[in-house]
């Protein structure tokens, strides 16, 4: 079930909200929690019911492991738990990739069966790995099975994050605001959700058509011009941001409706002036996970610059592979590892600071170039698009064969750039709402969000919506 779908708006969400609030009043927080867990399992099983069995099995194993680790902390037991989680992820996500590697190296595949990739497996796997490690390190304590099931399965963050931590989520269940009808939370949640919905429906999906048209044309043998390649990649660069940050806003808004605060996942990453800053602003909970559970255990920056650069490369290569089972994702991660190495070396050697406009432009272009590999179906397609970006083919043409309807695309691209580069982000807007609920001295975000919701729903009714990009991870 998609957040951006009429069944979700008209059926699932109001039913779960009403049932959760009613159960809170009738039987307290535990009853509300039970309804929320049940609703989350229905949400997860909507696409493919057998996935619920896999999720429950994974939850049961990790819950029991955590109890054992808490009772007698053991590096061996924790390591086994991490290995089990990674093994499950590898089987479902990377079996085909391993088969492809074996085909190249040995001339024959491994004969592994095709499996359906469970939604959100990369996210709930990392979440459970973090939980086991935190239990081992004494950063959190295991609760009961209902709380743990909620921690993993809570539907706003289950499919595509943000990656949450047990020590941050479970204490909120004992707060008075949990599952209570509070006007402040409802209003803030609706504003956040409406902004995220508009990002997805009105901007990301429109730009997605442009990116899809460019990559489809190339796959059909069209020699892209420099202009077409840049237009298509600008579309994708803004599409993936508004698609993923739109999802994150909707997730935060949904959490707030139930009186729960999820971590912020985006902080205007395209305003960054170097790649280090970009990764502090983009997919923040993944960056934090990779730092805390991979980069720092590898030694971080404690053993000299060469070790630091090595660790950065390892982390970014694995981060790329986490996104997808393909060499293009490994290359994407490797490029970001190289960018981070250059940025850290620049700082370490106290090189002169570049003008802000120059550093901003270089950062944005580097991110865009790396997105080519992220979006391409294979290395050959990435190479063709990069060649066009650097002017290896015709420079100026814009063919209707590539872009069927250019004007709406250019308008959406201009709007996306203005918002990404100059507008306040969702976190800044909600902070203003909290500080000044009436917003007498600023824009009325309640009215704006109402208008955005109306426009998005009408567009959704007329044209439908595409799945979120990060659902494939």
Distance between the termini: 16 Å
Kindly name the structural category.
mainly alpha
Q: What is the typical, i.e. mean, pLDDT?
A: 90
Radius of gyration, in Å, reads 23 Å
Helix content: over 70%
Strand content: under 5%
Note the run of SSEs as H and E.
HHHHHHHHHHHHHHHHHHH
Major sheet details = none
Query: Assembly type of the shown chains?
Result: single chain
The geometry reads as globular
Task: List the SSEs and their pairings.
Blueprint: H1 6-27, H2 29-45, H3 50-71, H4 75-106, H5 121-136, H6 145-153, H7 155-158, H8 166-169, H9 183-219, H10 226-257, H11 275-281, H12 284-295, H13 305-323, H14 327-348, H15 356-375, H16 379-389, H17 406-422, H18 426-435, H19 445-463
Helix pairs in contact: 1-2, 2-6, 3-4, 3-5, 3-6, 4-5, 9-10, 9-17, 9-18, 9-19, 10-15, 10-16, 10-17, 12-13, 13-14, 14-15, 15-16
How would you characterize the overall build of this protein?
This protein is mainly alpha-helical and 473 residues long. The protein has 2 domains: 176 residues, no CATH class; 288 residues, no CATH class. It contains 19 helices and no strands. Helix 2 packs across helix 6.
What are the salient characteristics of this protein?
473 residues, 2 domains, 19 helices, MBOAT_fam, transferase
Describe the structure concisely:
The protein is mainly α and 473 residues long.
